[in-house]
Amino acid sequence: MFEDETIDVACPKCGHKNSILVREFEENAQTHFVCEKCRARVRIEAAEFKQRLDQVRQEVESLEREAARDARRPSRRPRKGDFQI
Ligand SMILES: [Zn+2]
Fold first, then answer.
1. φ/ψ (deg, to 5) at 64
2. SS3 1
3. 46 CA to middle of ligand 1, Å?
């Protein structure tokens, strides 16, 4: 489920990306986390974050739609990463 997904939140002090459970934002108006790198306490307003979460969700949904569409289409397009010289 999406609720078990994590999202990277950059520390405002050192820029380290901390993985935060999406569920934390769903359940609390505010979320605190301690930066893994510099130990700074970071507070996140859920309302502010929800916008970003919605964007992420839309991206995930559109990716899933694309994947479903690709699965139905038998022709396989080589991706850039498939080429080797
Ligand atoms: Zn930090």
1. -65, -40
2. coil
3. 19
Q: How far apart are CA 72 and CA 62, in angstroms?
A: 15
Q: In this structure, which residues have their CB less than 5 angstroms from ion ligand 1?
A: 11, 13-14, 16, 35, 37-38, 40
Tell me how far apart the alpha carbons of residues 81 and 12 are, in angstroms, rounded to a whole number: 33
Q: At 56, which amino acid appears? A: V
30 contacts 40 by C-beta, under 8 angstroms: no
User: Rounded to two decimals, what is the model's pTM?
Assistant: 0.54
DSSP character for 77?
Answer: P
What residues does 11 pair with on adjacent strands?
none
The rounded distance, in Å, linking the Cα atoms of 7 and 13 is: 18
3-class DSSP state of 17: strand
**pLDDT tens-digit series, residues 34-66:** 999 999 999 888 787 778 778 888 998 999 999
